[in-house]
Design a protein that fits this description.
The complex is a heterodimer of chains A (142) and B (432).
Chain A (H helix, E strand, L loop, with lengths): L21 H9 L8 H12 L4 H11 L3 H10 L11 E6 L2 H4 L3 H12 L12 E6 L8
Parallel strand pairs in A: 1-2
Chain B lengths: L17 H6 L4 H6 L5 H11 L11 H6 L10 E6 L8 H8 L1 H15 L3 E6 L4 H16 L15 E6 L9 H9 L22 E5 H13 L1 H4 L10 E7 L6 E6 L4 H8 L9 E5 L8 E2 L9 H6 L8 E6 L4 H15 L5 H18 L5 H14 L7 H26 L6 H7 L4
Parallel strand pairs in B: 1-2, 1-4, 2-3, 5-9
Antiparallel strand pairs in B: 5-6, 7-8, 7-9
Helix pairs in contact in B: 3-6, 5-6, 6-9, 13-14, 13-16, 14-15, 14-16, 15-16
The chains are: A mainly alpha (142), B alpha/beta (432).
Bound molecules: flavin mononucleotide.
Flavin mononucleotide binds next to strand 4 and helix 16 of chain B.
């Protein structure tokens, strides 16, 4: 289970897909027999477009796949790769899985914490770096 | 050459493209099959080959395919499990990024065998770049008439799509994967009904791992007997092992099943890094019990691993050195499962949390002797008591470690610190 932020209740400004993205949105909807299945592809398109999933973006996705907003919010919070808060320009993710830990991942993370002055899940005040511990990135740390 | 079959041509430049793939004999199995063999004949060959699922459970692939009802008014689906989320496993990734057409060919053949006209490849969220590689290969295959309304002019229609997850270990479990693909939170479902009967959109569905599907084209092309030249009676064929940890040459190696761990670790990976000795091996991804160094001679096949109380699993071999604290290593694994438990079933959700807490107590030097038995107790109470095997994956490694390395837990309690702990020592050296 991932982070569990609270669903925003205030009205968010209405957002639309940029015209250039519409073909991709349509293609995503066409890949499945039901619209609901396009929820992850639509969330990805939104995150790629705006960098994070703002309440407005979540509402747009909900309209696109014809699901209630709270359900889309519940889906987005289930997956760790969706950013429900803005992230820094560089999103540093350090894999802490045993394979990586055996090869020095903890040391690497501690070094980054010290150098950047931020901890897990935090962003530097200038908005440049977000630091995060993650799992199983499948890189062989040499 | 890094392996006899799936890795034979893997480093060939340009293999990603359809032209080079076909030069090397690619899509010949498909040409031989479409319009020439019946779906039943395909299933029979795969059954006879003895191919077993490479996703972790080792279930016989042909048998799984035969469970799909022959007469069903509903559409059928073939789904590739490319979630590759088991810690220590990184084989599907290399297979797909270097040889995407082999997966496409395997998917079409598996789809044809079970009477499916649509396939989905479910990729973990981190594999976005592999999605681009696969999408490009799918477009090439469609252009060449290998996908679409009439595969190879046979009149059989087949479409293939990729689907990107978004970071949830549980989505590697097949029923959770199907929930996620349908657009729900990725939570597992109770089995039965099994996916073969009621899977994606409640239709008959086969879920197979990447490596399993990639073994299908060569098997259909050369036959079951040919495939059985590798491995042994119950574990035929080859398997890709991902080796990580402090060995000289970590990486993916394809070997015949039944090859000893010693050959893999000492010969292929060049043994341990200088100054370190082997202490333990996790042979099949972080979900399986570890073996002590004294078991290094054990053959890498399903039965030999079971005889030692562990599993071949996904083939993610994690090598642990003598300077590493076993309790600390287990804590790393346990907190992963505690984080990834989807929260649906109580034994798994609560059990993994309490296991994590006890590890923290032990490692902070405040552990009690009873805590050691408590770990075993909680593990017993998680095992087999949830919808899916995520809880089991957390419990089994603890049982394995208590069996072989109980003295390290006891040392931690009596001395309030680990017998050895390279990680902790290295952490203390980090400067600002
Ligand atoms: C918690 C959990 C995680 C799993 N993760 C994966 C995975 O990442 N990849 C995979 O192929 N199978 C995974 N499996 C196994 C699948 O449920 C399923 O058995 C497999 O995809 C079947 O394919 P196969 O018969 O070709 O092995 C996982 C199982 C569990 C319980």
């Amino acid at each position: 289970m991932s982070h569990a932020p609270v669903m925003p209740t205030e009205a968010a400004p209405r957002l639309e897909w940029p015209a250039a993205l519409l073909p991709e949105v349509e293609a995503a909807l066409a890949r499945y027999p039901v619209k609901r299945s396009a929820v992850l592809p639509a969330l990805w398109l939104a995150q790629r477009q705006w960098g994070w999933l703002s309440p407005s973006a979540l509402q747009l996705v909900a309209r696109t796949v014809e699901l209630p907003e709270p359900e889309v919010f519940g889906i987005a919070t289930f997956y760790t790769m969706f950013n429900l808060q803005p992230v820094g320009r560089y999103h540093l993710q350090v894999c802490m899985t045993l394979s990586c830990s055996l090869m020095g991942a903890d040391r690497l993370f501690k070094h980054l914490e010290k150098r950047l002055g931020i901890g897990h899940g935090q962003t530097t005040p200038d908005g440049r770096f977000t630091l995060r511990k993650v799992d199983a990135l499948l890189e062989r740390l040499r | 050459m890094r392996g006899p079959l799936l890795f034979k041509d893997i480093d060939t430049p340009g293999l990603k493209g359809i032209a080079r793939y076909r030069e090397l004999g690619g899509y010949e199995a498909l040409a031989q099959t479409m319009g020439h063999s019946t779906p039943e004949a395909c299933i029979d060959v795969v059954k006879a080959s003895g191919l077993r699922g490479r996703g972790g459970a080792g279930f016989p692939t042909g048998l799984k395919w035969s469970f799909v009802p022959k007469q069903s008014p509903k559409p059928r689906y073939i789904v590739c499990n490319a979630d590759e989320s088991e810690p220590g496993t990184f084989k599907d990734r290399e297979l797909m990024e270097k040889n995407p057409h082999l997966l496409i060919e395997g998917m079409i053949l598996a789809g044809y065998a079970i009477g499916s006209h649509v396939g989905y490849i479910y990729l973990r969220g981190e594999f976005e770049y592999i999605q681009r590689i696969l999408d490009a290969a799918i477009a090439e295959a469609r252009q060449a008439g290998l996908l679409g309304d009439s595969v190879f002019g046979s009149g059989y229609a087949f479409e293939l799509h990729t689907h990107l997850g978004a970071g949830a270990y549980i989505c590697g479990e097949e029923t959770a994967l199907l929930s996620s693909l349908e657009g729900y939170r990725g939570q597992p479902r109770l089995k039965p009904p099994f996916p073969a009967v009621e899977g994606l959109y409640a239709c008959p569905t086969v879920v197979n791992n990447v490596e399993t599907l990639m073994a299908v084209p060569p098997i259909l092309k050369h036959g079951a007997a040919w495939y059985r030249q590798w491995g042994n009676e119950k574990s035929p064929g080859t398997k890709v092992f991902s080796v990580s940890g402090p060995v000289k040459r970590p990486g993916n190696y394809e070997v015949a099943l039944g090859t000893s761990m010693k050959v893999l670790i000492d010969d292929l990976c060049g043994g341990m890094r200088d100054g370190l000795e082997l202490k333990a091996i996790i042979p099949g991804g972080s979900s399986v019990p570890m073996l002590p160094a004294s078991d290094l001679d054990t053959p890498l096949d399903y039965e030999s691993m079971n005889a030692k109380g562990t599993f071949l699993g996904s083939g993610g071999v994690i090598v642990i050195d003598d300077q590493t604290c076993i309790v600390d290593a287990l804590y790393n694994i346990t907190r992963f499962y505690a984080h990834e438990s989807c929260g649906k079933c109580t034994p798994c959700r609560e059990g993994t949390f309490w296991l994590s807490e006890i590890f923290e107590r032990l490692l902070s030097g405040k552990g009690r002797m009873e805590d050691i038995d408590l770990l075993g107790d909680i593990a017993d109470n998680i095992l087999g008591k949830s919808f899916c095997a995520l809880g089991d994956a957390a419990a089994m490694p603890i049982q394995g470690a208590l069996k072989h390395f109980r003295h390290e837990f006891e040392h931690l309690v009596t001395h309030q610190r680990s017998l050895v702990n390279r990680r902790k020592a290295e952490l203390a050296e980090v400067r600002a």
